[in-house]
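User: structure tokens for this one?
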Amino acid sequence: MRKLLIVFSVIMLAAFSFGGLVTAQDDAPQYAGLDADLSGVTIRMATIGGGQYEAMYDSISVFEEATGATVEIVALLDGFAIDQKLKTDFAVGAVDYDVSWNHTSFMAQYVGFVEPLNQYFTDEELAVFSPAIIEAATIDGNLQLIPRHADVAALHYRTDLYEDADIQAAYMEATGEALVVPTSLAQVDRQARFFVENGHSTFGYGMAGTEEALTGRFYELLFSSGGALFDENFEPTFNNEIGVEVATLLRNWYVDGIIAPDTTALLWDGDAQNFCNGDVAVKLEWYGWYSYFQDPESCPAVAGNFSLTRGFNGFDNAGARPTGWAGAHAFSIPVAAQNKDAAAELIRFLTSERVAYEEALLGFLPVRDDVWARLIDEASASDVPLDQVRLEVARTQISDDFRTPPLIAEWIEFSNIFYPIMQGIMLGDLEPQAGLDQAAAATRERLAAAGYYD
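Assistant:
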């Protein structure tokens, strides 16, 4: 069975709307994939939908008009639902589409069911994308996907707290150190506790605490502290001393009220809302919330009163590094596709500079260097300094910090084993070592059944 563990890097954002067919100017971002004559060809696509994911698809009319092709979207589902459809269709031979959604966190389970894309895209075309993504998405020499956009979490913090002279003086008196934006998990812990214990913030830290969101945040604190979920042979290692250190921290944060009492019920929206309400001092958060947090109508408590920076290092162990849990949405061509060359042209169009730029203006993180350069140049004219800072920080994280979950087909199954046990640790029902040992044993049993140790 296919087994792999891959680390990779990706990209960044803004907010606006898509346009239709426009006469290109020399300095304007350019389309690609419009040169082939595809008259009479119908390209079917199964992809992710919901919210602003679908805005990109409005540009497909440009592709249809230029090439003569007809594009039919046969499935438009959320990420987990489209993943389930693809796995089912691949397993039973029910693929009836030419372009499929893919994702760096899910691609391991699609190996063998999608075409190697290096036979459709030249080295020159691929050079505009993040080299780290392309390298990570290349398995046994076969490029599994062409990236669309990505996300990573930056450290968000309340400037009205960190820049308050009275709070700075009180922190110096209490701890003997200056109140600065934290660069380590130990600093985050000290500051979060100070903010809560002295009444400066309802909660010192914020995080989602259920489902894959909790698994991912544990994973992020683990790898940034020099730990790993598995070793090179896929033996669980998250129950070692580093894992116990992280699990103990999360339990203590919960017990001591440093994080919200309903953390174990919070997913991304609820977690972000606590920061929006001004109830959280500092937290890791996805860039996609930026325009929401900056909107004084949506988030009057933090609009204009927060900043963001690169993630912090974990606990001071060998191999400690900045946080950077990440992932990227993408497109692939199923092996069973009927119109593979035409599918490649549609993917070339949907990941072109022009379409990627327009999607980045909606708040998604681009994966192309030319789009990055354009966004940063445009942000330099903004009267909000953070508009440019966030792009520069994101680019650093993309090039240096991005790390996917272990790319194993059983990632979600592993998460479903792990997160309820981690919740039990946080709630005090299990001791950290005993709980992680239980999760490790159950994980090993599942991976053994999947053939990882044969």
